[in-house]
Protein 1
Amino acid sequence: MFQIKILFLIFFSIAAFLCALFFGPKIILPWTLGDIEKEILLSIRLPRVIVAFLMGTALGVSGAVLQGILRNPLADPYVLGISSGASLVAALGILGGVTFLGNSTIPVLAFLGAMMSGGLVGMMGMRKGGLWPERLLLAGVGLSFLFSALLMLLLSISNDEGLRRALLWIFGDLSMSDWDRIPYGLIFILSGLALAMSRAKALNVLILGDELAHSLGFSPKRERLLLFISVGLMTAAAVSLGGMIGFIGLLMPHIMRFFFGADSRLLIPASALGGGSLLCIADLLSRSVLLPQEIPAGVVTAIIGAPYFLYVLRRKDVLSM
Amino acid sequence: MTLNHGSFAHTDEHCIEMKKCLVIICFIIGIAIPAFGEPAKRIVSLAPNITEILYALNVEDRIVGVTNFCDFPEAAKTKPRIGGMSNPSLEAVLSLKPDLVMVTTDGNARQFEERLRSLKMKTYVFRARHIADFPSELRSMGSLLGVSKKAEILARELETALAKRKSELSREQSMIQKKILFVIWPDPLIVAGSNTVINDAITMLGYENSAHRATSAYPKYSLEAVLQEPPDMIVIGKGHPDMKKLSEGILQRLSFVPAAKNGAVCYVSDNLYRLGPRVINGIEELEACFK
């Protein structure tokens, strides 16, 4: 039964990816390619679809892992203050006139900011040589508020219209996805994913409680730290690829738990595929329905995802982890 | 006869009463006119375009407060600030003791204007959104501020400029409409849509705004749409001191579009961003792009 479900999910992901690639404002079929179609397909759509899939994967997995290590069904990758740190550092960089990397300046700054705030949250959540779930969560919420407030302050005292526009992408924007950002995103997200997968068994045990984990031969401190690092890597990369896109990190793991159960060894890859496909579809809709305008992909993920989640919620107690 | 007489007498009485009334009314008006009709002396402007117009009408010495965004002309930056356009500080406005607050329907909150009126503050609402409505709005501002002559000159100037373009256009009507994409911000790509002063200027010059189908004023625009309906000219407005550098990325991504490939890219100022006296310069700038 599981094999069928997994096969179905893999098939669904591939279909979502291909739909997002060939459908859109204009349906492009691979066997009737003109010059313009080729250009649209290869230099606009393909990088965009890859970025969407990568981001969705990173968010889905981060959510699944984070809900486990924090033992909290409401944890979402952005709760750790990673995204607000990213936008704050990006804003400071833009205001300070930093342009050393040309077009990649803002994503690189955002990545640095994300890693920095992830590190800060980790340090504050650390006590007696280990990460404490409650401390981690509260430190994340606190820092997140502080960074957002500082960003608001910057925006309200600065009269630079450019700054507002330059920060628009942080609220979720895939329209500028380009090939040159993909390798970095790929490296960080895949290494985060690999780390999470390799510690999946430990994650299962962590959910049961630290004492039990200890008695089963796992070091809760070490495992939680490793898993936290994997979440940090993936979320930071996702934010620098396309800003903040809500819903996926919070609710995709719950939807997948409904189908595949709470075993992290299955839940992590399932959340990866589910998150990736959902963002591909959401982005397809966001660039197609209001042509020639684009609507933020995060809006679409929530509009199609939330009703489905609520439906699932009525049918089964998905919140049990 | 008596009846007639009586009626005459009655009419006479009536006349005298009427005269009395008239005298009283005149007296009241005589007192009231200077109080009502005296042009405002302490003006707070809640929009950058209004500030620019006030400067153009040479009443800048009457401005006592402007928004944080009022940056043109340079001297406007030295006026006391009352906050942003969408979030002005009511206290700051009141503490300047204005006798007129000028607001616009394009950027100020209606509630703020209502609040001001409920506090017995006199307001003027600038309603024009398009170049075509601008001259008449200028005139009514002029008459309110007691500078009708200057306003008339500015309005005429604008109308002449518009009429000239119109007559030139009707002569060249056979020409194929060229498409312009007006970029407001390159990353993410934001362009000028149909309900903007920029769109007015583009159509007035006989061109077509590539993004005219977008429903919002400044939409986030689809790159695919640019490729599928390539513009003949890409105009990049000024939203940052170094737009050339900022736009490198988008031009590279659009290198498949003939305009970007052949360098049909024109950098202009922010003249058309506000419905103010600089729209004429903005139109000229846009015109120069094709020469």
Protein 2
Amino acid sequence: MLATLIRLLGDFDRAEEAMHDAFTAALDAWPREGVPQNPRAWLVSTGRFKAIDKLRRNARFDAALSEVAEQLEAAAAAASAVRGEGAPGEEAEGEGVDDDRLRLIFTCCHPALSADARIALTLREVCGLETEQIARAFLTSAPTLAQRIVRAKGKILDARIPYQVPALAELPDRLDAVLHVIYLVFNEGYSASGGDALTRPDLSGEAIRLGRLLVDLLPEPEAIGLLALMLLHDARRPARTSADGEIVLLDAQDRSLWDRGQIDAGLGLVERALSFRRPGPYTLQAVIAAVHAQASDSATTDWAQIAGVYDVLLRIDPSPVVELNRAVAIAMRDGPHAGLAIIDRILARRELTDYHLAHTARADLCRRLGRTADAVSAYERALALTTQAPQRRFIERRLAELRSSLS
Amino acid sequence: MKYLCLIYDNESGAAGMTREQGEALMGEYFAFTEAIKKSGHYVGGNALKPVSTATTVRLRQGKLSTTDGPFAETKEQLGGYYLIEAKDLNDAIQVAGKIPAAKTGSVEVRPIEVFG
């Protein structure tokens, strides 16, 4: 409904106000007159006319607004002329609604907005989260976040970012931006960058909801791949922390706690994404998650296949983080020495030196090789780089074990 | 809506070109300008003389100061601009992406403020 009002009124704030006014009007009218046949259309239409009324009232003080009001009125009149009558409750249904939701997603994730602003705006406008909720989830203050949203809306208006689904030629680039926003929201939910808890299920839940919506509206292979990836990772959530909130690593997880229904849904989506051929980065990561999901424990996991998929991933979407993950898979396939050599090469290039997971991975391989002193210093480095409480406790436990074996 | 496309590129790159390379680049710009005139996007545009010819002017507490060159040392310098008429930012981005310097430098797209 908000998505449609934004299109009709051409302004995020005006649309939010109109939606609020429409609900207020409904609280008044529906108990007296009964619920209309199409409540959504009634609300949209009422909101639209409330907004035009308000503009006209304010136009007495601002001539520019009267022009806007006239334009909106003319558009509304044209729409009802097409339908043959003017009664509220006849706003286009079905396809039109989906288009508006897609328009809203693509506008909120426009690459001309900063990454932070895209995330905030998407959670606020598409998911309908309150500013305070988003601020809490991303550990920033509500005023900072509100400011971010205001600036983004200002840029949409001032630079005239259009409210539309991109043309086919722009689609790959623009879809990437949308997928990236969803992926960032999911990741923050899957492994919080700070705070008291390892996961923020509220955020991963929103990301999955967004992913589903996108796949319904625009079933592109990478959208399907990303949804598969999120479902497969999220399926492990119940096993990733112990009852007292401590981290349980993949090889120690009780796999009977994994959500089988979600895994089956994820596996089906992986198949579907792969059927398009030439899988993209999200689909490849989903394939890796699928291999884990199908193994009964770490020892029987097909590490050779995982390392192979990482090879492909590294070729089409090179990044030091992918290289690091590949190194861990290779350590499982060929032994800790092989993995450690790759990690040391990455760190020698001065990449990932501030990424705590690079140091925990290095520490773990040193530990398995019996290089206790090296493991200790790598864990110490990792500890200095992480603020998330469960991560810190996990590293501290490992450090205590290693130090006691040294003495 | 009007947008200014500011073209930033490495000046020394153009200076080190052979005659043929320079002519090829001029040809690309010429073709681009013709294309956006035909599509109705073109409003105006100019190339600028090198940054070494630039002067920066500031007025502070009533005192005019002029300094040599641009404000900050950067790898890319403002080398020219196009003023275009575009439907919206997406349209402007499509036009800006076809400016030859988009391949080697960068193009900043700024909406033109309209007063009153």
Protein 3
Amino acid sequence: MKDKLTAKNYIAGYIFSLSLTLAAFLLVWRYVDSDRQLLSEGFLLAWIAALAIVQLFTQLVFFLHLGRESKPRWNLIVLTFAATIVIVLVFGSLWIMANLNYRGGHGTSPEQTETYIIEDEGFQLHQ
Amino acid sequence: MTEQQIGDSRQQAVESKTVFGFWVYLMTDAVLFASLFATFAVLRNNTFGGVSGQEIFSLPFVLAETLILLTSSFSVGLAWLAARQGNRQMVLVWLSITFLLGAAFLTLEIREFIHLYQEGNSWRRSAFLTSFFTLVGTHGAHVTAGLVWMSTLLIRIYRGGLFKSSLKKITMLSLFWHFLDVVWIFIFTIVYLMGIIR
């Protein structure tokens, strides 16, 4: 056989995944426990997101055996394509909806929104 | 057949076109989940005066769910290894363990849903809850489908035996199950952990 996959791969993957999950859990647990004083919210969010992404790659390598297939690596090619779509879909939606919210979400009338945006972006009105 | 040939034919079963086709399906499923994640991310603060994630999520409960699903992902991997070695007994053992863990996960999730519903926090309450139930419920539906699939495989292998076609099926099932675990990692992080942070 070409590849020598054994239970060791799975045990290693399991231990890595467990540690990453527990690390993310403990961070949030300690954060809530310290009345949200442990570290800044943005920093914590970044850490949690980073741990999830490392976990994604851990599982892709150890459980889904990415990189072990024979060439050409069709699995990897399809995965890359899907990942591109996923990123465009998720971040594109967030971007568009945040922008829409910004341009229509202030006060109850279009005039109020206009006033808000003029102030927010620091436009000078020339009479 | 020599040992080498048996090994080659097993390798072929694992890398067959059917398995590749299944992989492509999983990737399209990832796009489906991405659209639900995007919907959730956009609507997560639209609670319409109702509860927010901070009020309804429990960290220890969701950690338990995560550990159960992670362990089942590990055990399905061991079932696949046993299938590759042609060890029918161990395939049955590991698949059964995976099935029980999957069922335990699903029970916890359904309990959470029923609890939320009874407290008046159903999917009709706010956009946040609608997107929450849709995202987590779709994952739960996948787990349910996986359990049904797993039980038919278990019965087939128990009654009939472990064939080359069984190896192909176990390969696809294990891919499916690992995939669901990966999706759950993001539900755990984005829905629950980030929901508790703010």
Protein 4
Amino acid sequence: MSYIGIIITFVFINNFILTQFLGLCPFIGVSRKTDSAVGMGFAVIFVMSMASLATWAVYRLILVPLNIEYLQTISFILIIAALVQLVEMVILKISPPLYKALGIYLPLITTNCAVLGIALIAVRSEYNAMESFVAGIAAGLGFLLAIVVMSAIRERLDKEWVPKPFRGVPIAFITAGLMALAFMAFDKALLKNLLG
Amino acid sequence: MYSEFSKGIFKENPIFIILLGLCPTLAVSTQVVNALGMGAGVIFVLLGSEIFVSLLKDFIPERVRIPSFIVIIASFVTIVDLVMQAYAPSLSRNLGVFVQLIVVNCIILGRAEAFASKRKLGESVLDALGMGVGFTLGLLLISAIREILGAGTITLVAVGGFDGVIRIPGLSSQPARVLALAPGALLVIGLLKALFNWLEMRRKARAAWAPEEKPAAGVPASAGTPAAGPVPSATGGAS
């Protein structure tokens, strides 16, 4: 698949949050304020692109030649954990306010299904190094798009009256459901029409 | 001891009350049989990792405990993945990447960190079973709603001549297909969470009513005790 195809697939058609449900915890947890949502989105893009590249390298250059592909899950999660630690240190150094805003969610990127998800999906789709990297960035962009739109909606919802049992998480899920409905407009046919 | 088990099912249900492990919940809840397979996998991994974490808690240095827990969890996930590929290939295909993603299911790391790393083996086993069963029940509820309304069927395990699919008359010809698709999962969990919130609010409102009546009855009673108090002592003194 061409790079543009990969980007459109992961940003719109297979949006990680709205159609694959990967990365829902931070999506619901950090989408209250737009600026922390943006921060989280960029942290995820960075981690995802690095992670998909690093896991590709480990899978192709270590696991496959040694015939130990079954160690995939363990090795991938360790690579991701190490990467997240690195990003955490970098953000702490560059922007302490952002570090404060992201708070406990930054370490949680480790257990963000989206990051492990893109690594596993890239391996399953047999992407090469560059394709994996692009897929990582695209999936991260999809996450950023969804979380930023969501946080903007939630900031407005805060000012509106919502029936009490629906306040907080339930209305957030229903909002996400409606967004997912809108995203159903993007399907494989779109890709075919665009790229021929 | 029993409460360590039952809290995972109702009071601290991982899906509905503490909202953990949602990604796989939503993604695999299109068919009841997927929920059963996923539930079994999660119970196994949860049980195995809580046992190991609980046994090893005194040997794992504080600073590297999270990576150690993750390695333990990932090992059990690998076991589940390989066993499922070997003995239930169709289920493994249905669940796809989500079997391996059990490793990042927040419930498991959450319970290992919050519970098993501090408690004794027996309690951890009960906690794992309770949380696992609670997760499975929640998953079954969501997938039953989605499959019954979204496809008009209930898919179970095929046994002998029975193909494992129960068709519900009236619904299977004209299902509300959106519930079986991605948006349906988000809408169903949102509505269910609102329902649970509403039930919780009603329970609290009732609880708030009841003590209000009790203190009302209790105030005269406590005011009465000083008056009543001397009587027994008086009688006591008299005897």
